[in-house]
Design goal:
282 residues; alpha/beta; Rossmann fold; N-(1-d-carboxylethyl)-l-norvaline Dehydrogenase, domain 2; 2 domains; 8-stranded mixed beta sheet; 8 strands; globular; binds 3-hydroxybutanoyl-coenzyme A
């Protein structure tokens, strides 16, 4: 199935990024959040991100107008009935995502594909909340979505071949490289990344080095573009903790236990860039 109309659930940093790359690829996007004002705020962020590209001479003004005209903000699921695909990019919370999938099953055409941008939650479980588990799939984008070249495609137990092929073709149309992962918690990227970020928190807890020295060690010693604390702040510490908990609970191995320091930062509301303070102050 060729995807021409897309619904995105969640107008935060991931949902906004997904809406932007889709609109840039000429797809009509309905950007949904709980309230219309939140969806409008998401669209305004995309507008300012595109404005920066115009100022750098990387995007003609006419193209910016065209891309923005492809994005319609909405405060609810009322206008998803004509979408070929809906990508859910809500908070990383299993109960919330289960409810969204069950609601989307009623709000969309039975032929529509339902994808989740989940970082770690089971696609098979989300598919089981619908009457179309064959059309449920993981489409995991990386942050910041417009810049990062990867999309991880995750097949649930019931995901059918046609759905998989449509999503691979769409990711390629967005200009992304596709990797395919099994529906095992964390998939490929977060199975490797989150234990690394968590270990950096244990190291800090043990005063192995300062935040800056641990970050510099990884940036200059390993050629990582960001140190683990800079990256955790970008992702959101609440999201890092939520993924850590899924890995720990679902894989049942103590090596995935979240660092107490990470829990403490989240409890303090120090969630990273989005809250103005994480390991660094913004
Ligand atoms: N939106 C759009 N464009 C952005 C952007 C954003 N949020 N952030 C940066 N950019 C663009 C800049 O405009 C710039 O474009 P240009 O080269 O055309 O001028 C380019 O990206 C480079 O940006 P900067 O010069 O400001 O800064 P850096 O060179 O330091 O790059 C970075 C910033 C791309 C974020 C880089 O530091 C990086 O790659 N960091 C690692 C990011 C990463 O690992 N992401 C994956 C996280 S894991 C994940 O998302 C999975 C989830 O489930 C947890």
């Amino acid at each position: 199935m060729s995807i021409e109309t897309l619904g995105v659930i969640g107008a935060g940093q991931m949902g906004g990024g997904i809406a932007q790359v889709a609109a840039q690829a000429g797809i009509k996007v309905v950007l949904v959040d709980a309230q219309l004002e939140m969806a409008e705020k998401g669209r305004a962020k995309i507008a300012s991100s595109l404005e920066k590209l115009v100022q750098k001479g990387k995007l003609p003004e006419s193209e910016r107008t065209k891309i923005l005209s492809n994005i319609t903000p909405a405060g609810g699921y009322g206008s998803l009935g004509t979408c070929d695909l809906v990508v859910e990019a809500a908070t990383e919370n299993q109960e919330l995502k289960k409810k969204i999938f069950s609601d989307l099953d009623r709000a969309t055409s039975p032929d529509a594909i339902l994808a989740s941008n989940t970082s770690s939650i089971s696609i098979t479980l989300l598919g089981a909340q619908t009457k179309r588990p064959g059309k449920v799939i993981g489409m995991h984008f990386m942050n910041p979505v417009p810049v990062m070249k990867l999309v991880e495609v995750v097949r649930g137990l019931a995901t059918d071949d046609a759905t998989y092929q449509s999503i691979v073709a769409l990711g390629e149309r967005f200009g992304k490289k596709i990797v395919t992962a099994k529906d095992i918690p964390g998939f490929i990227v977060n199975r490797l990344l989150i234990p690394f970020l968590n270990e950096a928190c244990f190291a800090l807890q043990e005063s192995l080095g300062s935040i800056e020295d641990i970050d510099s060690g990884c940036k200059l010693g390993l050629n990582h573009p960001m140190g683990p604390f800079e990256l955790a702040d970008l992702i959101g510490l609440d999201t890092c903790l939520a993924i850590s908990e899924v890995l720990h609970d679902e894989l049942g191995d103590d090596k995935y236990r979240p660092a107490p320091l990470l829990r403490q930062y989240v409890a303090a509301g120090w969630l990273g860039r989005k809250s103005g303070r994480g390991f660094y102050k913004y």
